[in-house]
Amino acid sequence: LGSLVICTVLYVAFSHVLSGIATVEDFRTAGREASVTFAIAKYMTGYAWLAKFVTVAILAGFSSVILVMLLGQSRVFYSMSEDGLVPKVFSDVHPKFRTPWKSNMLFFVFTALFGGFIPGDIVGEMTSIGTLFAFILVCAGVWILRVRRPDLERAFKAPVLPAVSILGIVICGAMIYGLGWTNWLRLAVWLVIGLIFYFSYGRRHSRLERESEVSVKTHA
After folding, report:
1. CA 199, 204, 210, 215 torsion-angle sign
2. Alpha helix stretches (DSSP H) within the chain
3. Fewest Cβ atoms nearer than 10 Å: which of 50, 125, 134, 156?
4. Distant-in-sequence, close-in-space partners of 173: CB < 8 Å, separation ≥ 6
5. Cβ atoms of residues 209 and 85 within 8 Å
């Protein structure tokens, strides 16, 4: 929580300074994904060198974030593969390094191709709406689990439920609304693809489904 508070304060302070330097429209239409360097070049004459440093810092930050997200994504699919929701190739572990290396390679290639051939603003918007939708599911899931399974042992308990969950859902929903209908359509397409895959493959191969079938046969 301490690191979260520090990052939140820094982000808010950074946004406050930027909104004082340039107008909202500069970030929304003119600068787009290069909003910071655009604002520096337009409003801070003589500080072109600062824009270059900011660009380098952004690239360094993106590199670390992308690396961590890719490594984390491969572990998510590893768990899903162990549960039978996706093919077993995603849970194949390297004999020496004990990592899901095939999953890593697949995501590295997919991300490189996706980022190389899709415009940056579309990639950013799709990432934003996907992340916000995932946050909504997390907020709803925490609330549902607290109601349905209050007996579960928890390492951390979200305070002031359901207010925190409701607030998170409303805020993320409002930000999704601000992304526009084109992004809603992209999200809907991805959801349809995911649901088709789940009902055609994941549900039939799910470990919970297999255990349920075994339990039914045992008690029959």
Report:
1. positive
2. 2-21, 24-25, 35-43, 48-82, 101-117, 120-148, 163-177, 181-197, 203-205, 207-219
3. 156
4. 132, 136
5. no
Query: Residue 88 carries which DSSP code?
Result: G
Q: Is residue 173's pLDDT more than 60? A: yes
Structure confidence by residue, pLDDT tens digits, 62-76: 788 888 888 888 888
Domain ranges of the chain: 1-45, 47-117, 121-176, 180-219
Nearest-angstrom CA–CA distance, 119 and 115:
7
pTM, two decimal places: 0.73
Task: Tokens for 19, please give them.
Answer: 């909104």
Q: Side chain identity at 181, as an amino acid letter?
A: W
Question: How are the residues of the chain apportioned to helix, strand and coil, as percentages rounded to the nearest 5?
Answer: 80, 0, 20
CA 77, CA 82: separation in Å to the nearest integer?
A: 8
